[in-house]
Specification:
Blueprint lengths: L11 E11 L2 E11 L4 E5 L6 H8 L6 E7 L12 H6 E4 L3 H4 L6 H11 L5 H11 L16 H13 L5 E5 L7 H18 L2 E5 L3 H7 L2 E6 L2 E7 H5 L6 H9 L10
Parallel strand pairs: 3-7, 3-8, 5-6, 6-7
Antiparallel strand pairs: 1-2, 1-4, 8-9
Helix pairs in contact: 4-6, 5-6, 6-7
The chain binds adenosine-5'-triphosphate.
Amino acid sequence: MPSLTSPGQSVGLEVQHLHVQYGDFVAVADTSFQVLPGESFGIVGESGSGKSTVLRAICGLAPKTGTVQLLGQAGQSLPAPGSKPFRRLVQMVFQDPYGSLHPRHTVDRILAEPLVIHGLDDEQARIERALDEVGLGRGFRFRYPHQLSGGQRQRIAVARALILEPQILLLDEPTSALDASVQAEVLNLLEDLRQRRGLSFIMVSHDLAVVTHLCDRLMVMQRGQTVELLSSGDLAAHRVTDPYTQNLMLASGGFRRSAVG
Ligand SMILES: Nc1ncnc2c1ncn2[C@@H]1O[C@H](COP(=O)(O)OP(=O)(O)OP(=O)(O)O)[C@@H](O)[C@H]1O
């Protein structure tokens, strides 16, 4: 199967003047940011601030105006947003692994489905490789979601995204439904995969410790607006200027980077 991009060629993303509106309600207002190839970018903010809507708009699941564009190396040809190759290159992992996996489908069928949609061959080898990559192994192939723990289910959700060989993962609160110890395991797996595959991440979380652990930079959102763009180093050193971000830090229990380390 041909790869969409050459190995080692990470892909980033640029969002410009993104605006999402439902009736009179503005969920995301004039939001712009760049995620460099191979970078891990976080979006934080209180509940309802528009974080998930940004991810949904990027992958075409929310009505938007503004532009979304992939960023690559000079001369690299990249698919247009909304096209089928774009939908393969940019994969989303949702918060609730139980809700996002079909309860009556085996892991094998869950992982085969995206391969069929995108017309990829070599199904068995790809499924086994994806299971190995998320640390589960082939023994999990014919199990059902209810036979898995929360952490194992989230690993299947990650495998389902990875099986299409994406370059960008959109992670919507990927560990918030998990116990603290399992949360750390899944975050470490994600970070390991990012480094090995040269992936770019956009991760939404209300947990500043989690975002700072995994992300290089982050955007703080409030009521659909961007409050500030920061590096994780700024956040860890409490170099934040906006009172809203300072309050988020307090709400995160004083914010301990070690909480997920
Ligand atoms: N399809 C929709 N129709 C109407 N309003 C919507 C729709 N989707 C989202 N919203 C509203 O947009 C706002 C932002 O929602 P969003 O899910 O992006 O917030 P969030 O920051 O991700 O919150 P949470 O952390 O609780 O998931 C919310 O007020 C939500 O009710």
